[in-house]
Task: structure prediction
Amino acid sequence: MRKIHDFHGGIHPVENKHQSLHTPIRDAGIPAELTLPLSQHIGAPATPLVAVGERVLKGQLVAEATGLVSAALHAPTSGTVTAIEPRPIAHPSGLPAPCLVIASDGEDAWCELPPPCSFETLERPELLARIRAAGIAGMGGAGFPAAVKLGLKPGTQVETLIINGTECEPYITADDILMRERAAQIVRGAQILAHLVAPAETVIGIEDNKPEAIAAMCAAAEGTGIEIAVFPTKYPSGGEKQLIELLTGKQVPSGGLPMDVGVVCQNVGTAAAVADAVEHGRPLISRITTVTGAAVDEPQNFEVLLGTPMSHLLALAGYRAADNPRLVMGGPMMGFTVPDPGVPIVKTTNCILAPSAQELPAPPPAQACIRCGLCAEACPASLLPQQLYWFARGREFEKAEAHNLFDCIECGACSYVCPSNIPLVQYYRAAKAEVLQMRRDAQKAEHSRQRFEARQERLEREEAEKEARRAARKQAAEEKARRAADAGSGEADPVQAAIERAQARKAAQAAGAASEENPLQKLEKTVVTTRERLEKAEAKLAQARSEGADHIAALETGVEKTRAKLAAAEQALQDYQAQQTPAEPAPAGDAAQAAIQKAMAARAAQANKSPLEKARDNLEKLEARLAKSEARLAESRAAGEEEKIVEALASSVERLQEKVAAARAELAAEES
Amino acid sequence: MSGAGLTITGRAAPHSHAGSSVDRIMLQVCLALVPATVFGLYLFGWPALLLWVITCASAVATEALCLLLQDKPLSRLRDSSALLTGWLLALTLPPWAPWWIGAGGAAFAIAVGKQLYGGVGQNIFNPAMLARVALLVSFPVHMTTWVQPDLLSSGAPGPWAALDIVFGGGIPDGVTGPTILGEMKTAQGAGTVSELAAGSFNWLDSLTGSTAGSLGETSELLVLLGGLWLLALRIISWHIPVAMLGTTVLLAAIFHRADPAHYASPLLHLTSGGIMLGAFFIATDYVTSPSSKTGQLIFGAGCAAVLFAIRAWGGFPEGVGFAVLFMNAFTPLLDRYCKPRAYGRNLRGRPTVARTPARKVR
Result:
């Protein structure tokens, strides 16, 4: 016998389960119109594969999973697709969402299904593919795609596979009746799941308020090695984290997954759907839904096609709308109010609760918190709900996070016991939403900041490069002037000057070129990095293939994409090279060469000149430069340029004036 | 109810409720006080009844006035928290105290002790104890004039005489007498505490309450009964009372064993004064005590330590009010440092270490 642990807190609300357990599961039939929301699961909405007007057969894939975390959708019956458009759905927001609408033709004609087979004959990836193709999403309420949960990383060892038959929420009996009537199917599903994740042990957990279900499951599990664990009724023992603690004594790390403690958890409904999908190839197109509450005459469980309007089920159960102030999807603890009874049943609809006004009366107005601490005693996550409430109400979100706001599972136990009737969970939900929004905003702001900084850096770099070029030019000019002056005094070496000038120009160019890669280099770099990425991705894919990992498909698309990118980059490089080849000679070296030649020519010319001519030439040149400099100085003074610039210009004018004076004196000496 | 706060609209889960309410909790606490109160009124007669009515009425009237002044709905009176505060204060007053002690004390408790902080749920200190201590410090003579219980004797004042005692002439001579804690204080000075047990201290009388003392505190037994009923209803938890009474017994036992001439026995400590009322009804006040269980244990033990120190070495014979107020000041600190370990986290609040590294959640 397994040791049953306990979890902190919890409550014992009135169960109200017997009302809907008088009759067996009833087939809800085929409604005239089925509305399939494209998002019935956690993750990306499915992508429609059919067009409006197209005829579909029962079980036909009508929308495929988008990406990894998503689930496929199948036609629940045969008929015609009449619309793909936003429709009201059962969602706390009450907003319409994209739906695929099928008008049923009443024939209920099946499409061709994969042949029935026994799971032992199937390989792991094939099993997983069948489950994924069936579009199974967690049927307990959260709707996490089952195949994603079961797709383990290679090398992980699962210690415990837990099949959750707890159903701790009051009123709901969908899992209870499923276990009573289809225990064998659940056990087969559990065996398939165990075959998939190869756990050290498989446990089916059931609360002790379901004796018939327990008996049926025990009988069905006889000899399979699957254990049926029974534990005391307490809400919310069916919460994944709480159930794991109950059955294993381990706690899932905050922010982590059950796999972190070696546990995989699936609902009994999911197990049954898995058995159907693997053994009969049938996709998930129907589920068991409890219709209960004092506002229906015959509370009971239905096997209902996904997409069936809630109103259809309610009518079958004898719904009295006048007695029902609000319709709830789910149970009284975690369910949400449905704005319109026309919304469809989805994969996660385990219950429709139609309470009378006396049954679940509207709460009295909230009073002040008296710090009684009952909420902390009830909290299954061992949080301090009353502190969280103060922080949430005062918008002190940092403190709320420090008090583990995000560990709250929103079970509602705190609100349930609160003597002041404070809607605590609503505060936490609102606070979580605000924090998430703030995080998104912060991320956006951070992104913009990075972009701004990158731009700023680029501008500064460009400015610095310009400055460097300017400085190099200036240095070269000064050098030239000095040489010229020296030449005037007879020691000038125009060749040397020209060489230096050319070198300076080259240096200036190099300073610019360092960061301004030319397009050719850029393209080459792209090709190299893309090739590296492709090689890496291919290696990963090969490894995944050899290990039989479950994300091969994703890797394959990644490799394809990278390959396409590489091809594009190589093409771009070739194009560019084709354009540029004729005009390829290095301009920098050439200019230097030319300057040297020019300087040599000048030297040769000067060598032929008399000293008088030389002195006169020199003076003329200097005077021209002086005039230019003076003009530039006047201009910048007039334009009111920076003082530094004006000063610099003034000093260069002064220097030139001195040089002119010297040259004049020299000329005078020559002439005499 | 600041405008900047998070506002919540609409109806969402959970849709069901346990049915508990603040109104009911407060009324149940009042009900738990009934046995001790009835006994006290029977013991001390008409003047005590008048004082009790005046104190409770003053508390409710002050609350109503404060609500009116703040434009808050008068329907909040329904939570009975003001009645409870007035009631608790009345039980700790000398039974024949003049009317203005009760009326003024209750007004102070509600206006200064509670509404000034923002009303129910917001005060740091227990309002009733704040008022009692303020009265004790301001009017030491009136607050320490005790009458000997005069069960059904011919000398008991009738309704008219009671009016005169409460509203006019004060207490006639010859009916006053010391409390056992007062006698103990005197005996401590003389080193004759051990003789008390042989003389005026009768533990059975002290437990049942036919002794001099505050209006509703004398019968520790009936107060205890009310407290146990609250425990059974799960309105209070055992942590504060057990920590407070247990620590008192422990400290008294240690000192009594070491020096019986100066320190009274645990029995005397447990059966005298306001310790039971304090342990079950005052220290357990939701608003001013810690919410974590560890915090409550420390809080209760702290109350007892201060209480024992005052009784053993302080200037006042009794110290429940001071002790509770002293520990009230530590409540925010205790709540801060006695957080429970959250699911999936270690004691320092970090996520527990995963067996395999947690997948990165973006």
